[in-house]
Amino acid sequence: MSALMAFARGIDRVTTFVGRGVSWLILVVVLVSAGNAVIRKIFDMSSNAWLELQWYLFGAIFMLAAAWTLQRNEHIRVDIVSNALSKRTRDWIDFVGHIVILLPFVSLMVWLLWPYVMQSIRINEYSSNAGGLVIWPAKAMLLAGFLLLFFQGISELIKRGAVLFAGYPDETPAGVSHAAEASEMALLAPDEPQGGTERPTGAKGTLTHSEPRR
Question: Most Cβ neighbours (<10 Å): which of 58, 153, 173, 200?
């Protein structure tokens, strides 16, 4: 299991590196979009190349950051259901979901996209719009995004299995799925500890409650 965990952490490092790098493309998209809008309004000029560049960059952000979002546990869940379940039940749902839904779907997309992208690269496909850009890099981002998501899915499966079957501590970030639960615990009245312990914090001695062990 230690070797598998080392493999999973290696995938996590690659995913984090790519995700943080891709996040800078958001600034590029904003600058390109703003520059294109200013030029169009002031000089009454526009370009299909600039418009397509915006779309390509947005697609790259969405696809290449998907694996990082999974690694950070930031994908949206149904909080009203998820927060009502025990931690172990959520772990089992993630474990089974990765095996039954995520990995088969991502594997299918990689299998379908491979010839689609290779054909586009082979013919050096360009946009049909006047002055448009070459298309194959944008298509390649689709394949790259699903490949990253596949390996991150393997990493999450290993980590969830280590928690369930080998007693490893859970290193998964809380993410948005537990934000409502954390807010609810923070707002509990002092006379409703819900099995937790009270401790004064801050200058005014505000009472907070630690979450009971599950």
Answer: 153
The count of structural domains within the chain is: 1
Tokens found for residue 3: 């070797």
199 pLDDT band, cuts 50/70/90, is: very low
**Full-model pTM:** 0.74
- 117 inside domain: yes
Q: Which domain holds residue 113?
A: 2-74+85-167
Residues near 105 by Cβ (< 8 Å), separated by ≥ 6? none
DSSP assignment of 30-94, as one string?
Answer: HHHHHHHHHHHHHH----HHHHHHHHHHHHHHHHHTHHHHHHTT-S---HHHHTTS-HHHHHHHH
Which residue has better confidence, 6 or 44?
Answer: 6
